[in-house]
What we know:
The protein is an all-alpha fold. Helix content is 71%, strand content 0%. The chain contains 10 helices and no strands. The protein is globular.
Amino acid sequence: xxxxxxxxxxxxxxxxxxxxxxxxxxxxxxxxxxxxxxxxxxxxxxxxxxxxxxxxxxxxxxxxxxxxxxxxxxxxxxxxxxxxxxxxxxxxxxxxxxxxxxxxxxxxxxxxxxxxxxxxxxxxxxxxxxxxxxxxxxxxxxxxxxxxxxxxxxxxxxxxxxxxxxxxxxxxxxxxxxxxxxxxxxxxxxxxxxxxxxxxxxxxxxxxxxxxxxxxxxxxxxx
Length: 223
């Protein structure tokens, strides 16, 4: 364990910092503070795109360099799967990608990345659109409970976990999967509190019938 912490300590530290900043950046207190320091218009239209760009750079630039870049030798598989098991895992792996894309597109990927908000903000600044008016955002003003969200409440997180669990069993992948799982559990806890605060009883009823990361097939069979 000491050797593992020595090898991956920097990556763990960077991921922990990323997880904290990523969670804080997505929630209202920081956005409200930024709106006071700058303007509500800038935060409403341009913060999401900046937040996604910073998150992508931190995760795939900094963390990837520390985890996979420093430990390229740890990409060797620790277990050799039988052919039948590897084929089964590959099918599940592809299914996880399908789940990620379904959730990504259902949540409106242009809105998810902040591009729709930024484009509208640029149009307002250029005098091509009337503003400012509130942007009705997924997960902030709209509670979506259909499609893949009718099966799991956090399909992107669930899809990411299944993707990692069915990836090659190298030490690098195992370490990242553990970090991801811890963040998924902690981050989703605070996200749930935020959604309850925003949507109230509607979200509580939704949570009572739909699982967070795995479908509740027994409830569907009982209905």
